[in-house]
Amino acid sequence: MGIFMSWENVNRENPVQNEDEIPFGGISKDILIDFKCKSCGYEEKVPDFVAFECYTEEDFDEETGSPIILCPKCDANMVIKGR
Fold first, then answer.
1. Which of 17, 48, 61, 69 has the fewest CB atoms lying closer than 10 Å?
2. What is the pLDDT of residues 9-27, one digit of tens each?
C-alpha cells in the first residue's frame, strides 16, 4: 500500500478530524491588519504575513513607517490605518 491517499478518501467537509488539533505543524489563524489607501481612501483587512513580507526600505512608507500594500482599486499605496 502506498503513502498517497486518493481524493475519494479525503473528507472534503472537514479535513481536520480533531477540531482541537492544528494541522501542518502549527499553522494558526491569520492576524488581520486594517490598511487604508492614501489616495482613494479604500480600506481592507490584510493578513499580517502579507503586510510584513517587506524586505527593503522602499517597501515602507517614509511618513508613517508602515509597510506599503498596493491598493486594488487605484494602484496607489495603502498603509496601516491610523498611522
1. 17
2. 444 454 445 555 555 555 5
Query: Hey, what long-range contacts does 9-18 have (CB within 8 A, 24 or more apart)?
Result: none
CA 81/CA 35 separation, integer angstroms: 5
**CA-CA distance, 31 to 80, in Å (whole number)?**
13
What does pTM read for this prediction? 0.61
Contact 66/83 with Cβ under 8 angstroms? yes
N-terminal to C-terminal alpha carbon distance within the chain: 57
Exposure string for 15-26, b = 16+ CB within 10 A, e = fewer: eeeeeeeeeeee
Q: What is the pLDDT of residue 39?
A: 96
